[in-house]
Amino acid sequence: MEPTGPRCPESRGQPQQGGLEDDKAFYENLSPQKKPKSPKPQHAITIAVSSRALFRMEEEQKIYTEQGVEAYVKYQLEHEEEPFLPGAAFPFVKALESVNIQLRELFPDSEELFDIVLVTNNHAQVGVRLINSINHYRIAAATIFTPKKDVQVSEKQLRVAFDGDAVLFSDESEQIVKAHGLDKFFEHEKTYENKPLAQGPLKGFLEVLGKLQKKFYTKGLRLECPIRTYLVTARSAASSGARALKTLRSWGLETDEALFLAGAPKGPLLEKIRPHIFFDDQMFHVEGAKEMGTVAAHVPYGVAQKYKLSGQRKVAQDAK
C-alpha cells in the first residue's frame, strides 16, 4: 500500500530567485516512482509538520545564521541529493503512515485518513532537497520541542499522550488552583464532579483519533489497534480524577489509559509509555518530558500562560 504523500511545502519569508515558472519546473522534475494518493481535505485529519521538526537541519541553520541566505541556498543546492537525517517528529509521522496503511487495507474506500502537510519557510530551491528527502524515506510529509536524548518509539502503533486541564479540557479547574489553592480545587471538583468540563483546544484531536480507533474495533482489533491514547494528568485519582473521566464519558470519548500522577513529575512515566508526542499547557511539564526523551508539544492556552508571563515580568523587574 502507498503512504499518504505530503502536500507541496509552502515557501514563506525568504527572498525568491526566479518566477513561478522556475519554481514549478523544480517540482515537476521530481516525480516519485509512484504518485501517492492523498485523502480529500474535507475528510482528512490534517497534521501540519514543520521541516525542521521532521528533519534535522541544525547544520544548515547554522550556515544560514552565520553566513546568510546566499551561502545557505548554495549549500543546499550542493547537497540536495543527500537526504536530511530524521528529526524529532519523524517517528510520529511514520506511525501516522502506518495507521493510514492499515486503514486502507481494512477500509479501501475510506477517505478518513491522516493528511500530513509539510510546512516550511525555506527558499523555493531548498524545497528540492526537502522533496528528495521525503521520497528517500517514502514518508508522507503546537510547537514541538526536541527531546534531549533519543528514545526508541514504535513505528507500527501511534501513541499520543494528552494532559487534561487546558489541553483536553478547559482551564476552569486550573483557574481555581491558581486563585484559591489546592484545598479549594479539591472542594470544587467534588461539588461539580457530575458536571462535565468545557472542551479544551485538543479535544477535537482526541475525538478524531477515537473515531479512527472505532473503525479498527469494528474489525475485532481492539487489542491490536494501531492507535493508542493516554491521559497523563497531575490530578489525583482519589480527589479529582472522577470529574475528568466523567467528562470524557459525557463526550462519548475515552483514552486507552488514564494516568493520575497526583502532582508527581510526568517525565519518568512518559519514558515508560513512550508516546510519539505529548501535549501539555505548562512548560515545566514539557521540559520534564524532553529531559526523559519524549517529544513534547506546548499548548499555549489557559490561565497557566498568564501566570507564566507574570513570572517572567517579575524576574525582569527583579533584575533591574
TrEMBL record:
Q: Name one Pfam family in it.
A: 5-nucleotidase
Q: Where is this region: Disordered?
A: 1-43
Mind listing the GO biological process terms from this record? adenosine metabolic process; nucleotide metabolic process
Transmembrane stretches, start-end: none
A GO CC annotation recorded here is: cytosol
**What InterPro entries is this protein classified in?**
5-nucleotidase (IPR010394)
**Which terms in the Gene Ontology molecular function aspect does this entry carry?**
5'-nucleotidase activity; magnesium ion binding; nucleotide binding
What protein name applies here?
Answer: Cytosolic 5'-nucleotidase 1A isoform X2
The species is: Thamnophis sirtalis
Q: Which gene encodes it?
A: NT5C1A
